[in-house]
Amino acid sequence: MPTSADICDRIIEATLARKLAPGAHLGEVQLATLFACSRTVVREALTALAARRIVEVTARRGWFLVQPDAEDAQATFEARRAIETGVLRCARAVSPGAVEELRAHVQRQRDALANDDAGLRSTLLGDFHVCLARALGGPLLAAILRDLTVRTTLVAMHHQSPQEAEASCAEHAAIVDALAAGDLAAAESAMAAHLGTWDRKLHVPPRAHGLAALRHALQPAAPQAIVPIS
């Protein structure tokens, strides 16, 4: 029988691959049936994901994947930028094996882009940062980056074009080139630019608040012009 950790991993993998969309309902009964386990195990998994801010629960409605807005996206990308540039700043060296692994990863991203595989492309673009964190900072840091990457994937799912994905892949390649040259300062600068320009790559609408959102929704439609019959 799968553990709650196994269920967490499957939900995260499906989200990274764009198989689960922002706001997707995660029913306890359905998940228990799919995983052939008790609802208690499912609830443990969903509670753990809620603590990691990947899912949220609503009274009488159940569990849902979060739907990050522009403010959430900014906070998440700022957290990633602080962590990932810090890792590069504190790194002493990158092994040739790690560089080759990252180069191979970038090539897989290019292949996914060439094959127009949106799910695999999304998974790999996010996983690059997890692999880099694992190579430079170890498994604990990689786990933290994985959770943050899930949130940014939920942002990118509806707001990233194939052209913007290609730009991200090219920026990943530039980071790896700097690491291969032993220029950690250049790699840090490239990472800061990569994560600091997310708002130009992902056009996320701002959060709509209360009265303003309702006022906009209830505005009367513009009257249709009457065309005289000649």
Automatic annotation (TrEMBL):
InterPro entries: GntR_C, TF_FadR/GntR_C, Tscrpt_reg_HTH_GntR, WH-like_DNA-bd_sf, WH_DNA-bd_sf. It comes from the Bacteria. SMART domains: FCD, HTH_GNTR. The keyword Transcription regulation applies. It holds the Pfam family FCD. PANTHER family: HTH-TYPE TRANSCRIPTIONAL REPRESSOR NANR, TRANSCRIPTIONAL REGULATOR, GNTR FAMILY. It comes from Ramlibacter agri. The keyword Electron transport does not apply. One of its GO terms (molecular function) is DNA-binding transcription factor activity. This is GntR family transcriptional regulator.
